[in-house]
Amino acid sequence: MSTKLFTFKGGVHPPTNKHTQNVPIENAVDPKIVVIPMSQHIGAPCDPLVAVGDTVKVGQKIGESKAFMSVPVHSSVSGTVKKIEPHYVPGGAKVNCIVIESDGNFEVHESVQPKGNVEDLTKEQILAIIKEAGMAGMGGATFPTHVKLSPPPDKPIDVLLVNGAECEPYLTADHRTMLEQPELILIGVKAIMKALGVSKAYIGIEKNKPDAIEVMKETVANAEGIEVAPLEVKYPQGDEKRLIQAITGRVVPSGGLPMEVGCVVDNAGTVATIGNAIKTGMPLIQRVVTVAGSAVNNPKNLYVRIGTSFKDVIEQCGGYKEEPGKIINGGPMMGIAQFSDEVPVIKGTSGILVFNKKEANLPESQNCIMCGRCSDICPVYLQPYRISRYSILRDFDSADEFHAADCIECGGCSYICPAKRPLKETISVAKKEILARRKKVK
């Protein structure tokens, strides 16, 4: 498999701008204040387990929900709980948050203990460790990992795919993680394979990361059933359904999940953090964040504590080079623009991108010229121009007939459109409306 490059039909080739790919991960300056949201994942928000005035330690569980579709939240510092109140988060919502003032000691909670060797752990123990560590997809989707690893009995899984594609421009957090923490990824892969009961795993890495491909090949050389799958450089290669199609040839049905075709996909950063939770016992309290863009003085990859403000992180990169025109949580294609830098880093913050005003200003949209380029490159085989038109007309029934809900919101259509139509944005509106209607019917 190592001589073949895997890919999928469609997709686009935006400039990669991986300016930080050779910049090693640095520990971010420890924050004085953290704002930790009680909801950093898909599913039920957590209820606070602490009160104002309480003293907390690093790794201590401070929020939890009894719902299955949820993960707990932990303190990233030791110190005192100052407030419990709503704050804006990178997704744009106002979420209940626990505000902690650090005491600067970073005393670790007694519950943080190594979990032993994967070989000695049972499937149930691994799933419990992953849930208790607060694991949610760190590629941006923030789906609770223990839920993903608990498919129903009628959906047998036989393949694990580790997503190291990192196809979004600018982002290099996963690249650096594969280079600097390959042993943690190996521990995580073995743990997930055991939890799923699978004997085959592929680590998909785009060929523009040859050093990561070599490092991971060396790391898994003696590991049975684990293989590195080099991928063509194409966006959105990192979408889990595109990754499944590229490597296994299996096609996830419309409206279906990877488990429909016997697959589970986990992001490389997520897998490394699972490995760390097993090796050290430390839950998900910090993550690697790529800080880049034309308006940042000194782009870096930083290991940042959850709850640190974007403003503090950007200041550690020399601050703003010029007045920012746009700040994005995540990558430029699928990330979410922020109205303020006073939002906290959360579990899904893979990048903080800051662009100057010139780059942030989008060209004025023109009339569709019916060129069909958006349909040619759509990795889901949709007709974006049609769905967009129906969305603008608020004809959501017609948009549904053209499978708007299957859109993965990769933004490839908007990128390739010569008329600069806001295709992704208008399709997203239709998708949200359609899914809301379906939920209401249920």
TrEMBL record:
GO terms for biological process: electron transport chain. Residues 1-22 are annotated as: Disordered. Keywords: 4Fe-4S, Cell membrane, Electron transport, Iron, Iron-sulfur, Membrane, Metal-binding, Repeat, Translocase, Transport. The keyword tRNA processing does not apply. The keyword Amino-acid biosynthesis does not apply. InterPro entries: 4Fe4S_Fe-S-bd (IPR017896), 4Fe4S_Fe_S_CS (IPR017900), Ion_transpt_RnfC/RsxC (IPR010208), Nuo51_FMN-bd (IPR011538), Nuo51_FMN-bd_sf (IPR037225), RnfC_N (IPR026902), Soluble_ligand-bd (IPR019554). It is a peripheral membrane protein. It comes from the Bacteria. One of its GO terms (molecular function) is metal ion binding. GO terms for cellular component: plasma membrane. [4Fe-4S] cluster 2 binds at C378, C407, C410, C413. Residues 358-390, 398-427 form the 4Fe-4S ferredoxin-type domain. It holds the Pfam family RnfC_N. NCBIfam families: PRK05035.1 (NF003454), rnfC (TIGR01945). This is Ion-translocating oxidoreductase complex subunit C. The gene is rsxC.
